[in-house]
Amino acid sequence: MAGALLMLTAVAAVPAQAAGYRYWSFWESAEGKPWAYATQGPATARPADGDAIGFRFAISQGTSDTSRPSVAPDFPGICAGVEKKDGTKRIAVVVDFGGPQDAPPGERLPAKTVRVGCAQVREDATGAEALAEVAKPLRYDGAAMLCGIAGYPARGCGEQVAEGGEKTGASVVPTTAPGPGTPEASASGEGAGSPSFGVLAGGAAVLALGGAAIWKARRRG
After folding, report:
1. CA–CA distances in Å: residue 43 to residues 38, 75, 144
2. What is the structure's pLDDT at 61?
3. What's the pLDDT at 43?
4. What residues pair up with 194 in beta bridges, in sequence order?
5. Backbone angles phi, psi at 129, to 5 degrees
6. Cis before residue 110, ω within 30 degrees of 0?
7. What are phi and psi of 198, to 5 degrees?
8. What is the per-residue pLDDT for 197?
9. Any idea of the CA torsion for 53, 56, 57, 63, to the nearest 10 degrees?
10. Cis, bond preceding 105 (omega within 30 deg of 0)
């Protein structure tokens, strides 16, 4: 029982030590509205002509504290002079590489920390295709999570970081119930995944039930 309680305490303590996750968040804007946290990944989102999409690299815990792109979703300004052609649509793209506080250890920020461009793509193109028109190369992991834009960062993908900004060694753990505040729900086209807090909480519950079972067994003995 004591061993189970020690394990439970250790698992429950992990989220409090973590500052969040370092990843690319995905934002969207329709009809000139302010940035809104995307509810699906860029590989499945299909913005319309005149929309804007944004990407921000930062350390975040969820939608409540996720940093928005520092440039407004100004479609008229970004796509000024780009005329619509038959069979295509124009998407304003904003890529914000974040600041030094968000950079992974050993990575150097691009000289230009914000990149904007007007992607002219076919009418059924996804947000990921529009992004590729503006900021190649893109890097994805095996679960289709967007890990790097324009080569930044060169390594890593959605790692959990401690309060000092150092990687903890944990990464995003896929689950079957994603939410818009999670790295994979934001940046992948699969819509699967959430921070490992939920997994840790589930593990704590399992350990608690296990401890209760041991206690009952000993009483019967």
Report:
1. 12, 21, 9
2. 77
3. 94
4. 173
5. -70, -35
6. no
7. -65, -40
8. 31
9. -110
10. no
Q: Which helix (H) or strand (E) holds 50?
A: none
pLDDT at position 65 is: 62
DSSP 154: S
Residue 77 exposure: Cα atoms within 13 Å on the Cβ side: 7
Q: Mean pLDDT, consecutive 10-residue segments, the chain of 221 residues?
A: 37 52 96 94 96 96 77 97 96 97 94 97 98 96 94 95 62 37 47 32 34 42 50
Predicted model pTM: 0.70
Determine if residue 156 is left, alpha or beta; phi over 0 gives left, psi from -120 to 50 gives alpha, anything else beta.
left
Alpha-carbon distance values, 48 to 42, 100, 124, 180 (Å)? 13, 33, 9, 21
DSSP tag of 101: G
Give, rounded to a whole angstrom, the gap between the first and last alpha carbons of the chain.
15
Beta bridge partners of 37: 27
| DSSP H or E run through 217 | helix 197-220
**Residue 110 half-sphere exposure toward CB, CA atoms < 13 A:** 17
Residue position matching structure tokens 């992004």: 131
- Predicted local distance difference test score (pLDDT) of residue 176: 28
